[in-house]
Amino acid sequence: MQNPYFNHIHDYDNPQREYEEDVAVMEDIEENNRLVLWNDDVNTFDFVIQCLIEICHHTLEQAEQCTMLVHYKGKCTVKTGSLELIEPMHEKLLSRGLTSEIQ
């Protein structure tokens, strides 16, 4: 019978495992991008809700909650993910007259 502790240590010497851990860290970093929607005095609640549903693929409840947070807190993170995911959403929000940024 092999010592399970030895097998555990041996796993860390495995180049494949090290690669998988590096990929996992890179994926975590990509998920740290945030699409932030800012409050304005121009757009209606219904318009913002509809934009969040269409552009960010929110449910009605998510869109309503984000819209309320934007209104009362001044901003809200409406999506997190890779730049590849959130950059097009950011551009679409801007094209509809909403104020957003990627952080």
UniProtKB/TrEMBL annotation:
GO terms for biological process: protein catabolic process; proteolysis. Transmembrane segments: none annotated. Keywords: Hydrolase, Protease. Gene3D superfamilies: 3.30.1390.10. GO terms for molecular function: peptidase activity. The keyword S-adenosyl-L-methionine does not apply. InterPro entries: ClpS_core, Ribosomal_bL12_C/ClpS-like. The keyword Hydrolase applies. It comes from the Bacteria. Residues 31-95 form the Adaptor protein ClpS core domain. It holds the Pfam family ClpS. This is Clp protease ClpS. It comes from Bergeyella porcorum. The lineage of its organism: Bacteria, Pseudomonadati, Bacteroidota, Flavobacteriia, Flavobacteriales.
